[in-house]
Specification:
heterodimer, A: 325 residues, alpha/beta, 2 domains, 5-stranded mixed sheet, globular, B: 421 residues, Rossmann fold, 5-stranded parallel sheet, two-stranded antiparallel sheet, 7 strands, 43% helix, Transketolase_C (chain A), THDP-binding (chain A), Transketo_C/PFOR_II (chain A), oxidoreductase (chain A), magnesium ion binding (chain A)
Chain lengths: 325, 421
């Protein structure tokens, strides 16, 4: 069986395994070497694999992603770190106009096995640009894959799978879950990277979430159970592609769906899920698909983030509204 | 044909010795931009210092640049760079001439095809043949090229079939060729992005322990882009074997170079800690020599170099552009006097480097190329409808599969309707 470890440690172990297994794997980013990353996710990797494999880069996000593209063209498999969610935008051009399209433009001749790690989301009392959830901006772009683990075990295995993928993968790490421990079985046969998982069975309503909100939804389901409501929780794990089949199967059973994410609701991934599930499950639904997420406002200062972020009560409120239809 | 580049590899040290430390050496009209100290990485900044000294007090309209062949076709000596073309034969020179003539012909044909509605757009290289052929022929097969969208002459040097360049301009693909087939990356439309790809690729070469080099092409407008500055930073920090080849064709669509920079572009390199040099971009011999020098630096572990080829875009930015709105005829006329092809022709004729039939045979070859390009474009099939869904992902994607199936069903519905009629 596995060992209990925190998510940050699980990602570290996963990177270590990838560096050890494949000499073409590189880790790149600001402060990833000696410091081990600001969250220590890359702790000790440079010491063990050297400066040529674990590369401290200049403070230039476009440069980090742009040179990773060049390294991938040369046959390397770079795993780059963007230090925080809000810092990805200087690299957004390279990601969207170059990385995402290279395989298609070359008619399949060129592969782009680049992983972009982005610690994301709020709840840790950080300053501006350190708490955002920009996943929908990447999921909207064809050519990119977007995933977000919710626990240490998935973090470990999804990183292995992301590195092995010949497509660019944006790997969103829920930073407020970095210190949550879970059992990680490094000998396991993991679920496919883009497969959603039912993490709690239920019959009355489906809660769908990914990354940092999965734990919240499990807490919501536990609280609702005390009121006699039996909620199912689906951990989506992958935002692009989205595993609609698993959500559909759940909704056909429960007939109600609430989608929860930290990102603003407007044009967010919840909107896409609501639209498609409405198409697929129109005759099964007893209530419109509801969404709980951030507001159409800049991520607020830390003293207000508890108001902004979905919490137990806001999700329970949505559950009540759905059940009232 | 290719120019034997072995001459460029051998005399690097001897060239430095020959040049000594006397700084700029001038030809009839050309002035070297720097000192021979730049032959070693440690003194790389000396070149830029020398360059700054050389241009001080001069008007920017009279740029100091490396020149081996004057506009009149007269060969001028250059203590620093002559060594890099020392082994060049008459046949090599005819080859360079042929490359430039055929590239210009291909370009003219593509422009005509755009006017005839066969291409959606064309970015002409007219006037920049020497910069592209000179630098392109300095490359080894194992070097890697990252072009912008105007490097038709470099593509020619790499052996990319010119008709392959036309697919994206005709709208049948967004790139099309296999970049690894000729070590010639896809054209990049977003200005300056490819300078970072080149730098990353060059970093990979270093990791592999190989001695290839990378060349990144971009224009004067791209020098304003953050990506180009970041690629300077990364390449300097990692000592990457990359040559930045900036074709300063004076105009970024309607904006002159003065709207991009207060200092001559090659001087940008100084602040990043590597040498920059300005070469007469209409002098194919000088472009060949300077690029060989820069590639040799890259190969021998001395890191990046910025080459600014001072040239002129004789035509429009693209076929959608109207240069009469922003520049006068007299400017183009002044540059026509410096035409790269005419210049080499004068030299070849004065040196008796051609036989009687050479120009006539080349004219016939040029005609044949034009015909081939014309026919190839018109015969280019539209892509299959399902190409929309191909190669979006290497490993596949559920949404793409779903939408492909929907599209197929929708297409099939027309066939059903036809059948049922």
């Amino acid at each position: 069986m596995g060992e209990k470890m925190a998510m940050a440690k699980a990602i570290n172990e996963s990177l270590r395994r990838a560096l050890d297994t494949d000499p073409k794997v590189l880790v790149m980013g600001e402060d990833v070497g000696k410091l081990g990353g600001v969250f220590r996710v890359t702790d000790g990797l440079q010491k063990d694999f050297g400066e040529s494999r674990v590369i401290d880069t200049p403070l230039a996000e476009s440069g980090i992603v742009g040179t990773a593209i060049g390294l991938a063209l040369r046959g390397y498999r770079p795993v780059v770190e963007i230090q925080f969610d809000g810092f990805v935008f200087p690299a957004y051009d390279q990601i969207v106009t170059q990385l995402a399209k290279m395989h298609a433009r070359s008619l399949g001749k060129v592969k782009m096995p680049v992983v972009i790690r982005i610690p994301y989301g709020g709840g840790i009392g950080a300053v501006e640009h350190h708490s955002e959830s920009p996943e929908a901006l990447f999921a909207h772009v064809a050519g990119l894959k977007v995933v977000s683990p919710s626990n240490a075990s998935d973090a470990y295995w999804m990183m292995q799978q992301a590195i092995q993928s010949d497509d660019p993968v944006i790997y969103f790490e829920p930073k407020r879950r970095y210190w949550d421990k879970a059992e990680v079985d490094v000998e396991a046969i993991p679920a496919p990277l883009h497969k959603a998982q039912v993490v709690r069975e239920g019959t009355d309503l489906t809660l769908a979430a990914y990354g940092p909100m999965v734990k919240l939804c499990q807490e919501v389901a536990a609280a609702a159970a005390e009121e006699g409501k039996n909620l199912e929780v689906v951990d989506l794990r992958s935002v692009s592609p989205l595993d609609f089949d698993t959500i559909q199967a759940s909704v056909e059973k429960t007939r109600r769906l609430v989608v929860v994410h930290e990102a603003p609701v407007f044009f967010g991934s919840g909107a896409e899920i609501a639209a498609r599930i409405t198409e697929r499950c129109f005759y099964h639904l007893e209530a419109p698909v509801l969404r709980v997420g951030g507001y159409h406002a800049p991520y607020p200062p830390a003293r207000l983030e508890e108001e902004y972020l979905p919490d137990l009560d806001r999700v329970l409120d949505a559950v009540d509204r759905s059940l009232a239809f | 044909m290719t120019v034997d580049s072995s001459a460029a590899r051998k005399p690097r040290r001897s060239a430095a010795d020959k040049a000594g430390t006397t700084g700029s050496t001038t030809g009839a009209t050309g002035t070297n931009t720097g000192t021979a100290g730049a032959q070693s990485g440690a003194t790389g900044t000396k070149r830029s210092t020398g360059a700054a000294r050389a241009t001080r007090g001069k008007k920017s309209t009279e740029p100091e640049l490396v020149q081996l062949l004057t506009p009149e076709g007269k060969r001028v000596k250059n203590a620093e760079y002559d060594a890099y073309v020392a082994g060049i034969t008459a046949e090599d020179l005819r080859g360079l001439y042929r490359d430039m003539v055929l590239t210009r012909r291909f370009d003219a044909e593509a422009t005509a095809l755009q006017r005839q509605g066969e291409l959606g757009l064309w970015a002409s290289l007219l006037g920049q043949e020497a910069a592209q052929i000179g630098s392109g022929r300095a490359l080894r097969d194992d070097d890697y090229v990252f072009p912008t969208y105007r490097e038709h002459g470099v593509a020619w040097c790499r052996g990319v079939d010119p008709t392959n360049l036309l697919g994206m301009f005709r709208g049948v693909n967004n790139g099309g060729w296999d970049p690894n087939g000729n070590n010639f990356h896809l054209y990049t439309i977003v200005i300056g992005s490819q300078a970072l790809h080149a730098t990353g690729y060059a970093m990979g070469i270093t990791k592999d322990g190989a001695d290839s080099a990378v060349i990144a092409y971009f224009g004067d407008g791209a020098s304003s882009q953050g990506d180009v500055a970041e690629s300077f930073t990364f390449s300097a920090v990692y000592n990457a074997p990359v040559v930045f080849f900036c074709q300063n064709n004076q105009w970024a669509i309607s904006e002159p170079t003065e709207k991009q920079s207060r200092v001559p572009l090659y001087q940008r390199a100084q602040g990043f800690g590597f040498p920059g040099v300005r070469v007469d971009g209409n002098d194919v011999l000088a472009c060949l020599a300077v690029t060989r020098w820069a590639l040799e630096r890259a190969r021998s572990g001395e890191g990046p170099t910025l080459v600014e080829a001072f040239t002129y875009r004789m035509g429009a930015h693209t076929t959608s552009d109207d240069p009469t709105r922003y520049r006068g005829d007299e400017e183009r006329a002044a540059w026509e006097a410096k035409d790269p092809i005419l210049r080499l022709r004068r030299y070849l004729e004065a040196s008796n480097h051609t036989n009687d039939g050479f120009f006539a045979e080349l004219e016939a070859e040029s005609e044949a190329l034009g015909k081939r390009v014309r026919e190839a474009v018109r015969a280019m099939p539209d892509p299959d409808h399902f190409a929309i869904f191909e190669n979006v992902y290497a490993d596949g994607h559920a949404l793409v599969d779903e939408e492909r199936a929907q599209f197929a069903a929708y297409q099939a519905s027309f066939a059903d309707a036809e059948g049922g009629r």
